Amino acid sequence: MKKAGQRMLFLLLLPLLLLSFAGHEAAAAASSQGRIVMDSKELALPKGVILENVNGSVMIPIRVVVENLGFEVLWEQTTRKVTVQQDGKTVQLAVGSKTAEADGVSLLLNAAPKQNGGTVLVPIRFVSEQFGLSVGWDNSDKTVYLSGGIPLESPVSADPLPSATVAPAASAGPVAAVQSPAPTQQPQTNTENTEEVEGSITASPTPAVTSPTVKGAVFSENRLIVAVAGGAKPTVTKITGPDRIVVDFQGAAFASDFSGSFPGVSASGSPQGRLDVSGYLLVSEIRYALFSTSPSTVRFVIQTAGSQNYQLSTDDSTGLVTVDLNTGNSGAGTPVNTGLTGKPIVALDAGHGGTQPGAISLTGKAEKDFNLAVILKVGAILTQEGWADVVYTRTSDVTLGLQDRVKIAEAAKATLFVSLHGNSLDVGYPNRDKVNGSETYYSRSESLPLAQIMQKHLVAGTGFKDNGVRSKSLHVTRETSMPAVLLEAGYLTNPGNEAAMYSEQMQNNLAREIVAGIKEYLGL
């Protein structure tokens, strides 16, 4: 169901941010205020506010949306900054600035927020990514559709973990090894086209035959998503000098209403242009055009920062073709550090310990004990299966500083670093015992593929609500040089999460899934 939901989100996203190429539609937009509908309820727009298209992005009033989600919105008149707070998460935007901050991490917006009277308008893609909403756009009546709003009585957690710190001694008991499941299988790629591509694309006239067709495209969450019809099938090839991924739809032409982020028209009348890739460090440009008329071929070129692996998938039920750059498969361009044995080296970090117990659960249990119990189980599985070497930052209840943990991983030349924690909220926090779920943190862009894979397996292991992948500047994930993630398994201040986290069954399940996530990332 989750995969189907993601596909539906991608389908809804395709028409977004893609309005500037149709002049008559832009004129219609100027004469209409537009509407915002959230979970089938129309939201009241401030008087005089019109939903706008800026640099290919639909701009919506942030206060109207987030207040209906139960978030707190603060406005600083002197600095013209908007601060949104909920469940420990803080997002800050400034009018006129294309840089926003989420929990202290800088994010690049594809369009700067703007002020219209007393209302601040922000790009719809930012709202979708930061507040976990599915987004759709009906260009015929200028309506934004939002779904996934959280009821006020059951807020989503966004609280970052307490910082990992130090601790003294008590030894851990024996750990029973449990067998690891096979990692989740990645979809198989289609046959790759071996044709070379040089330089930029040149467009050719659109042929009379329009089926199969390419209807639209968008780049979101490091994925190129293309909507097709009439049986259009992709072939993909990787090329160097410069590094790029070429996606061809042979026998296809652009649909008459094709939508793209920065669309244009060639002298012959065929669509050509670029997709919005702002904020994505792995991709410098995505361009598209009708590459050939004999046979008719629509081509997308993904210009990447270095050799980049990908996963190709097609969904005939939705007509979506996805080129996913969030793959952990180690190809020729992604070297993996190995030890003297030739095996990958996995650094396992049990958060807190010793005099620093971490969070204290509702029934008085220490976070450090949960962290260590699961990490030792993970290490036992890895050792039993024998395909990786294991390095622990601690194997008993000892005091260890944050930089010491980093040094251990660096000295071992670890292939990857996984830190485990339990989350909590302060005693005075509203609805403290209702906030729940699992989340994964990363600090550096190269750690994002690992974070996305580990979050999937983290949720499978805990069975808790999926709070998603989050970027935050945490010492152990920031200062390590290898891909590094910090897993927040669940909330010790939530009765259901706490009871499960200290059960042998869930700890074993979680350990197996962490191992499965590591295997999937390494392509083993």
UniProtKB/TrEMBL annotation:
Positions with biased composition (Low complexity): 172-192, 202-212
InterPro entries: AMIN_dom, Cu_amine_oxidase-like_N, Mao_N_sf, MurNAc-LAA_cat, N-acetylmuramoyl_amidase_3
Membrane-spanning parts: none
Signal peptide: 1-26
UniProt entry tagged with the keyword Hydrolase: yes
Keywords, ordered alphabetically: Hydrolase, Signal
Region described as Disordered: 172-212
Domain MurNAc-LAA span(s) in chain numbering: 406-519
Protein name according to UniProt: AMIN domain-containing protein
Biological classification of the source: Bacteria, Bacillati, Bacillota, Bacilli, Bacillales
